[in-house]
Amino acid sequence: MNRRSLLGLTAVAATASAGPAAAGDAKGAPEASYLALPTVTANAGRAGGGRGVMTVEIGLDTPDAALRTRVGQSAPRLRAAYAAVVQQAANGLLPGAPPDVERLIAQLQAATNTTLGRAGARLLIGTVMVV
Question: What gap in Å lies between CA 88 and CA 43, rounded to an integer?
Answer without folding.
Answer: 10
